[in-house]
Amino acid sequence: MGRPACARTGLLLGAVLLVLTGCGGAAPEGTAEQPSPSPSSAPASTAPAPSCADRTLAGLPRDEQVGQVLMVGVPAADPASGTAALSGVPVGGLFLQGRSSADAASVGAAVAQLQEGAAIPLQIAVDQEGGLVRTLQGAGFDRVPTALEQGRQDRAALRSATSGWAGQLRAAGITMDLGPVADTVPAGTEADNPPIGAFDRQFGSDPQAVAASVTTVVEALQDAGVVATAKHFPGLGRVRVNTDTDLGAADPETDPDDPFLAPFAAAVDAGVGAVMVSSATYPRLDPDSPALFSPAVLDLLRGQLGFDGVVISDDVGDAEAVSQTPVAQRAVESVAAGVDVVLTVSPDDAAPMAQALADRAGEDEVFARRIAESAGRVLALKERFGLLTC
């Protein structure tokens, strides 16, 4: 399917003129003919033209709207092999999961092949934080130090280094980095924080210093044309359990006034394109649901922090934190809470998740509007970064 054509214009204006002048163009009998307004005196239209994203969304059937809210993992070493498991489900994005030692040219060729088969350009995401979390490790991709090392650099040096490796990603067709980590790990607790501190994934222990580093990385990434993703809202720096491998990850301290929210607020102020929400629980925000299933947590991000971009879930495919919820229901609960993109590392999840989202939208008009809202945000982000053009 090709991209939608631009909407026709001028039909309404023509109809109005016909009513005013009659079919033959003469004034009705018994009325004085009025002079036509000069171009300078005609009222200017104040309605903005619809964006490319709006026009694209208007032409999408529901199954393709649903597809735009899914990001599915495929093997970084062989992305094409993973797309076969999608069973024809249209998806808005692919996450290159795992590690690849392929050189930059080979990665670029593989990504181009993925894009050629997409009716709407794909968001192609990687985890290129630095240190041990670095998807692309082959020739042509710089070594990226840990976030802790990055946080010790001055801002000019950090910006320069980030711009360099971000440009390499963009040249290889990568459109989104699932970073930077905006979590703050209190000093002295790093070893007890298995998801972040144990691997030096944090920029530091002071939230204001972390905020400065996050701002620098977000700006450098996005200036290079790569969407930045601040994660893991509202923070994994205090949890004592890894959400990927265990149940029970919780942060008992985070509340709406938590100073550890500062790096996320800084990312929003810097115009970050996406924010990833965690699968831990935050009893002072919502005692009953993990963050990615919690309207209260999403309202904090949208309302208090003023974020109007794309919200991405942390992985809901293999993460142990959500293992008690059936696979398809994970997608439904995330979107119902306010998540825009459901991320799963498993391509086998695409079909059941898409079906569950479509079924819920078919029976619930409010949920159908949520799907359309999220698909619209996804398309707007693609347009903002030059992926989607009309």
Give a structural overview.
The chain is α/β, with parallel strands linked by helices. The chain has a single domain (67-384), classed as TIM Barrel (Alpha-Beta Barrel). 37% of the residues lie in helices and 12% in strands. The chain has 13 helices and 12 strands. The strands form 3 sheets. Strands 11-8-7-6-3-2-1-12 form an 8-stranded parallel sheet. Strands 4-5 form a two-stranded antiparallel sheet. The protein has a two-stranded antiparallel ribbon with strand order 9-10. A hairpin with a 3-residue loop joins strand 9 (281-282) and strand 10. The chain is globular, with a radius of gyration of 24 Å.
Keywords for this entry:
8-stranded parallel beta sheet; TIM Barrel; alpha/beta; two-stranded antiparallel sheet; disordered N terminus
Helices and strands, with pairings:
Elements: H1 11-21, H2 52-58, H3 62-68, E1 70-75, H4 79-83, E2 93-97, H5 104-116, E3 123-126, E4 128-130, E5 133-134, H6 147-151, H7 155-171, E6 176-177, H8 207-223, E7 227-233, H9 262-269, E8 274-277, E9 281-282, E10 286-290, H10 295-304, E11 310-313, H11 327-337, E12 342-344, H12 350-363, H13 365-384
Helix pairs in contact: 2-13, 3-12, 3-13, 7-8, 8-9, 11-12, 12-13
Major beta sheet summary: 8 strands, parallel
**SSE arrangement, N to C:** HHHEHEHEEEHHEHEHEEEHEHEHH
**C-alpha-based Rg, rounded:** 24 Å
SSE class: alpha/beta
CATH class: Alpha Beta
Q: Residue-averaged pLDDT, rounded?
A: 90
Quaternary structure of the protein: single chain
CATH fold-level assignment: TIM Barrel
- Residue stretches low in confidence (pLDDT < 50, at least 5 long) are 1-42
Distance between the termini: 14 Å
Order of strands in the sheet with most strands? 11-8-7-6-3-2-1-12
Tally of helical segments: 13
